[in-house]
Design brief:
The protein is of the alpha/beta class. The protein has three domains: about 1-175, Rossmann fold; about 350-500, Rossmann fold (3-Layer(aba) Sandwich); about 510-690, Rossmann fold (3-Layer(aba) Sandwich), CATH 3.40.50. The chain is about 50% helix and about 10% strand. The strands form three sheets. It has a six-stranded parallel β-sheet with strand order 7-6-8-9-10-11, sandwiched between helices.
Length: about 700
């Protein structure tokens, strides 16, 4: 005979109780007892129900009495139950303890701590399965796994006593706290609770989010994701469903994982954005769009792993954005009232450079035109303007959707003086400044934007009005092709003119004499991002040292940044494991950030590019210019396309695998004569192709030439 204890915070309906007892009896030979707040005695008899106990009768003190009075509103069931000795005695003998409603879940969990061999269940369906399981195993049943999963006696009790709760909201907080959810039974009970049929939408939504947050704090992120997605599957309200799916996806991303439900979460959020915009609710629609884009362009998907779904399928992965009416409205071209004017005659060209704290790639360009007799230069860092610095992406999105007129007024007021002064505005990076400057009509001022690499994997191309950009510069054809495939606005009639101009680099200064010992020294410049994939370079070194232990590797630049996400932390952990033995053997040296890279490269004979993604890879080209033999990986993000590392660099510079890289290095460094010859050829090619005096001509044509000369 299996003792079953049903616990309810409110008296169940008579027909529901009778059905529950019948279902349990079908699963095995049972004795069913019911405990809960009164009026249980008013319930009609149910066949198979051997007792009904109103545990409030055993509660003592004014607090317990108040709890009993508030029970029908979801009051503190456990506060009353824990003082009822008769109930505790029944619970100790029970084999299955069942919560009939959500407010009883915490009490069942606590009773299961007292009786560690009992099944703890939420709902009759789970209880019938438990009864059937016990019946099939006979009298020697022991829930060893259940016992082991519970905390030590008193570990939770002390916290529970401190958190005797006075109101339903507080009860829920305590019952769904980390101490409960850290245990298997507690987690299972609440996961079942959020999917219970018949829950009001608002209750399910709030409960699921609390359970999800509690599981996260209890270090059960997988359980949190399961609870949230399961609740979403039972949720009909589109707004609630989108938030639950989004919460689940963000939890997975926070763990450094690609969410299995990412597509569903994005689709649900965009559906809400479309509905909100159709109802004229522009501010929440903008927030919804940005939440969707936050998922699509999350750094874990594209930056902190060695793969990217956008790089794998640029015509498919971002497609849900293209089909959203809200995103379509967001990126709708506003155009300009008049076309950009031709360069002025009789006075210098007024050139405004615009950045936001990152002018790293602008040095040579700025220096050239500041000393040019026919150009007058100004520089604007939008981060230095407090009013502009406060304009967030969400506010830009709201303005682009037709709301937030104050944003347009602010931008007009702050940017118009700059636009009135400048003949040409050169915005480096398609990020905040590009979105701000294209949010207002530039008049006759020409707008030139340079896109590097990061922006392609971000929301900024959608927040920038590309119809107001006259010229868009890419530093490589492979990046242009990927961006055009991923951003449909660049394939439309209003798209800007597209140009490919390499980064500006002073390569001649790197051409310095090499030490003879440099022949066996490899270098990798820039290792802080996962995209640089220094582990690939370490594998090349291992293969080389199998043939000759004279080979060693210099790592130049800040180390892999493990702080960015769980994914980057996981990569950094494996990277450190790779380095451990090699550093001890002197095969790898981490040089960190250097003030004089050209001097350091005099001791380097082979320059590597191990990246999965690059817009150009200046460090690789600088190494080649220094006279180091270039050995570059066929960047995986672009390797399947028509353009990539193999079309940017000479074919023999690029390899497909660490083995191929090692073979090339062994062949070209086998003798000093061959090594020096190959190194000289690489240096000459790099300087003749990408040195600043060569590249400067392309910038002159673009910035100073007339429209028919560009």
């Amino acid at each position: 005979m299996i003792e079953v204890l049903l616990v309810a915070s409110t008296a169940p309906r008579a027909e529901n109780l009778a059905a529950a007892v019948r279902d349990l009896a079908k699963s095995g030979e049972v004795r069913v007892r019911l405990a809960g707040f009164p009026p249980l005695d008013e319930l009609p008899d149910a066949e198979g129900l051997v007792s009904r106990q109103s545990f409030a009768a055993g509660a003592k003190g004014p607090k317990a009495a108040a709890a009993a009075r508030g029970a029908k509103d979801g009051g503190p069931v456990w506060q009353a139950a824990r003082q009822d000795g008769a109930l505790l005695s029944v619970a100790r003998r029970a084999k299955v303890i069942v919560a009939l409603d959500i407010q009883a879940v915490y009490t069942v969990w606590q009773l299961a701590r007292i009786n560690r061999a009992a099944h703890a269940c939420y709902g009759v369906a789970a209880a019938t399965r438990a009864v059937a399981d016990r019946s099939s195993r006979g009298g020697h049943y022991l829930r060893a796994d259940f016992v082991a999963s519970l905390p030590r006696a008193g570990a939770v009790a002390r916290g529970a006593k401190r958190r005797v709760l006075r109101a339903p909201k507080k009860v829920a907080r305590g019952a769904i706290g980390p101490r409960v959810l850290r245990t298997g039974p507690g987690a299972r009970l609440w996961r079942a609770a959020v999917t219970a049929p018949g829950l009001p939408e608002d209750v399910r939504f709030k409960l699921a989010r609390r359970v999800g947050e509690g599981m996260r704090k209890a270090n059960r992120p997988g359980g949190a994701v399961l609870a949230l997605t399961s609740a979403a599957g039972r949720t009909r309200d589109p707004r609630h469903r989108a938030r639950l799916l989004g919460d689940a996806a963000r939890l997975d991303l926070a763990r450094g994982r690609v969410p299995g439900g990412l597509a569903d979460a994005v689709k649900a959020e965009l559906g809400c954005a479309d509905t909100l915009l159709a109802a004229g609710r522009k501010k929440p629609a903008a927030a919804s769009v940005m939440r969707a884009m936050g998922l699509v362009f999350h750094r874990v998907l594209h930056f902190d792993r060695t793969e990217s779904p956008l790089a794998d399928a640029p015509g498919e992965f971002p497609a849900p954005l293209w089909h959203s009416s809200a995103v379509t409205a967001l990126s709708r071209p506003a155009g300009r009232a008049v076309p950009a004017a031709a360069p002025p005659v009789g006075r210098p060209l007024r050139l405004l450079f615009v950045v936001r704290r990152n002018d790293h790639f602008l040095g040579e360009i700025r220096d050239r035109y500041e000393s040019h007799p026919d150009v007058e230069v100004r520089v604007l860092d939008v981060a230095d303007d407090p009013a502009l610095a406060k304009v967030s992406a969400d506010r830009v999105a709201e303005f682009r959707l037709g709301g937030a007129p104050e944003v347009g007024e602010l931008l007009e007021r702050r940017l118009r003086p700059h636009l009135d002064w400048a003949d040409t505005v050169f915005v480096d990076w398609m990020t905040v400044p590009a979105a701000l400057f294209t949010a207002v009509d530039p008049g006759t001022t020409r707008i030139v934007v340079r896109l590097h690499s990061y922006e392609t994997f971000s929301a900024w191309p959608y927040l920038t009005d590309l119809s107001r950009v006259d010229d868009l510069i890419f530093v490589g054809a492979h990046l242009r092709d990927l961006t055009v495939a991923a951003v449909p606005q660049l394939r439309e009639a209003h798209a800007p003119a597209l140009h490919v101009i390499p980064n500006a680099m002073d390569l001649a200064s790197y051409d310095l004499p090499k030490d003879a010992e440099a022949r066996f020294t490899l270098a990798l410049i820039g290792i802080s991002a996962v995209a640089k994939d220094p582990r690939w370079a370490i594998e090349v070194l291992r293969l080389l040292r199998e043939s000759d232990e004279r080979y060693r590797l210099f790592l130049i630049g800040s180390d892999v940044d493990a702080r960015l996400s769980a994914a980057s932390k996981a990569y950094a952990r494996e990277y450190e494991k790779d380095l451990a033995g090699l550093e001890e053997a002197g095969a790898v040296r981490r040089l960190g950030q250097l003030d004089d890279v050209p001097a350091a490269l005099t001791g380097v004979g082979v320059i590597l590019s191990s990246s999965v993604r690059e817009s150009f890879h200046c460090g690789f080209v600088e190494g080649a210019a220094s006279g180091a033999v270039p050995v570059g990986r066929d960047w995986p993000f672009f390797a399947r396309g028509a353009t990539g590392a193999r079309t940017l660099f000479p074919q023999d510079w690029v390899v497909a695998s660490p083995r191929e890289a090692a073979d090339r290095i062994l062949a070209l460094t086998g003798s000093e004569e061959v090594w020096r010859k190959q190194a000289r050829m690489a240096s000459e090619h790099a300087i003749a192709t990408w040195d600043w005096p060569v590249v400067a001509e392309a910038f002159d044509h673009l910035l100073l030439g007339t429209p028919d000369q560009r």
